[in-house]
Amino acid sequence: MAEAKGVSPAYETVPPQSLEGYGYDQGYNPNCAPAGRVNQSSSPVLVINQPTQNMVCVVQERPPDYTCLAIFSCLCCFWPLGLVAIILAIQATSLSDTGHYDAAKRLSNTTLGFIITSIIIGIACIVVFAVIYTGAHRSY
Known about the structure:
InterPro entries: CD225/Dispanin (IPR051423), CD225/Dispanin_fam (IPR007593). By secondary structure, the protein is mostly helical. Helix content is 46%, strand content 4%. A two-stranded antiparallel sheet has the order 1-2. It starts with 36 loop residues before the first strand and ends with a helix.
């Protein structure tokens, strides 16, 4: 209605292509150039190579599994420490399966300590019993 009376409207309609930053003919400010390398040629196609992200994949080794050695130390050596070693070896394997490699490594090292201690005590017991048995049956 305002146009019909000859009064100009309070706003002007401007097509979006004529506004800065709209449309296809965009020039980049040298201070705000797009990231990456811009390849321009005489063709109307503009190719922008975006910078890529470098991904680093850290692969951790599984800690050693001492379950078989723990069973051996339980059956053939000092069984109380061997039993503890079996329980710790199973826990270390479980942690390793869930991806907690640091905790599994610590438990695996503790398991190895119990296995070695069980074997040493078992050998010492065998030696002591052998000395006592042979000493008791000596004929003078």
